[in-house]
Write a structure and sequence with these properties.
With 316 residues, this protein is mainly α. The chain has 14 helices and three strands. The radius of gyration is 22 Å and the shape is globular. The termini are far apart.
């Protein structure tokens, strides 16, 4: 890599039209970030503390929520700082790190939704063999896959980007992403483009598996009323999460590669940031409200005084 890449500072596209209201946007963004952490961490802690929730489905759900916390941590602190101090600058290394966190979050989200669909497929289509298939060892391997696949895939992509000589320093986004850095290159980016399409294909493969598994699940539900109840209770939130996240990612991809400046800046900014706002905020709400076991335990912990009194008595 050329030495200039190490010392380069990128300028990000800020919310220029909101300068007069930057404190209002700062408060609103801080509130959204607080809710994301509160909702996701509440679900994670509830699953950890309740032994009855130490089942594969809930373990994978806590992994999904933890990924949401990690992914948003790569964006919101920097974004809030830019809103408050109106800087919109980021170093080359900081840009690569932010791109790594955000891209890893995206791939980990799909990998986790993939293993969650596999879990539901086994639970509904092979109920008698469920505990034989979904052992602790299998769960560990699936969790490891959901993190190792994104880390390795994103690391290779960013290493390919780091070899490029750059001829620009402006990124037309509020955060750093790999494609925006690649577009600043003075040299051929064929290898980067091919590898990028390979990653996109891997995501499509994950989504295809999820869709095929749901086709089989729906067929199983048609034949059995019990399977239909399980599907509506546990699979519907998963399906909503997949649709929600995929739509958000499609918006970002379309605007990154084919976006038009004819769109109002506020709409363009929202669509670029939607996958960092809506999915991590809605996932814990969708699962928390739909899954009875989680909903009941959260409400009991927060609002049932008898439980708090009994826990206080035990401690004494």
């Amino acid at each position: 890599m050329d030495n200039i890449s190490f010392t380069m500072v990128f300028t990000l596209t800020g919310f220029k039209e909101t300068k007069a209201n930057k404190y209002t946007y700062f408060v609103l963004t801080s509130f959204v970030y607080l809710l994301i952490n509160l909702f996701n961490l509440t679900l994670i802690v509830t699953i950890i503390l309740e032994r009855a929730l130490h089942e594969p489905m809930y373990i994978f759900l806590s992994n999904l929520c933890f990924n949401g916390v990690c992914g948003t941590a790569g964006f919101y602190p920097k974004f809030l700082s830019d809103l408050l101090y109106d800087t919109h600058l980021i170093s080359y290394n900081g840009c690569i790190l932010q791109a790594f966190v955000i891209y890893s979050y995206i791939l980990c989200e799909y990998a986790t939704l993939f293993i969650m669909s596999y879990d539901r497929f086994v639970a509904i289509c092979k109920p008698l063999d469920y505990h034989m298939i979904m052992t602790s060892q299998t769960i560990g391997k699936l969790i490891f896959y959901s993190w190792s696949f994104p880390f390795i895939g994103v690391f290779i992509g960013l290493m390919l980007t780091s070899r490029l000589q750059l001829c620009g320093s402006h990124i037309d986004k509020s955060y750093c992403d790999n494609w925006s850095v690649v577009k600043l290159s003075c040299v051929s980016t064929t290898i980067n483009n091919v590898y990028g399409y390979c990653l996109i294909f891997s995501v499509i493969a994950h989504v295809t598996f999820i869709v095929l598994s749901y086709i089989k699940l729906i067929n199983a539900c048609i034949k059995s009323k019990e399977s239909k109840k399980i599907f509506m209770k546990t699979c519907l939130p998963h399906l909503l999460s997949l649709i929600n996240f995929t739509i958000a990612i499609l918006f970002d991809i379309l605007f990154s590669r084919y976006g038009s400046r004819d769109f109002p800046p506020s709409l363009r900014n929202f669509l670029q940031l939607e996958f960092l706002i809506i999915p991590p905020l809605l996932n814990p709400i969708i699962y928390g409200l739909k899954l009875t076991e989680i909903r009941n335990r959260i409400f009991r912990k927060c609002w049932d005084p008898k439980i708090k009194d009994s826990q206080h008595t035990r401690k004494r």
